Amino acid sequence: xxxxxxxxxxxxxxxxxxxxxxxxxxxxxxxxxxxxxxxxxxxxxxxxxxxxxxxxxxxxxxxxxxxxxxxxxxxxxxxxxxxxxxxxxxxxxxxxxxxxxxxxxxxxxxxxxxxxxxxxxxxxxxxxxxxxxxxxxxxxxxxxxxxxxxxxxxxxxxxxxxxxxxxxxxxxxx
Length: 174
Description:
- The mean pLDDT is 84.
- This protein is 0% helix and 40% strand.
- The protein has 174 residues and is mainly β.
- The protein has a four-stranded mixed beta sheet, with no helix packed on it.
């Protein structure tokens, strides 16, 4: 009902349907925009496998989908067999983002699988995760050696050399 005037993006979600986005121009001066129709589709399904470098399934990692830089659909966790399924996703290119404790985050484009009798763009993805390293230590006052109570550590990428790959930036608050 009460919306700011000007260009707005309506983002509509409902259980069992793919999210929809619809651009509208809301009139100013108390005007109303009537008869906006949002058509929701049942969407597509993405299933996949998350494994380690030896091909063993990874249980309990989080999987989310992204489209044009925006999170879409529900999130999932992998089962004991490393598999997951996310439904009610919009058409178009999707990227799977995976993260979990003790693992480096990964992403991969979703491929149409062309199997089954579902949506023709249902997709599949397999992601291979690497074990994360750990850093342990203390933060102290350089003059007194006393522990610093509140601090922030930011891990950033160094200058990359030939053949090296970029990692995600991580934040930790004390």
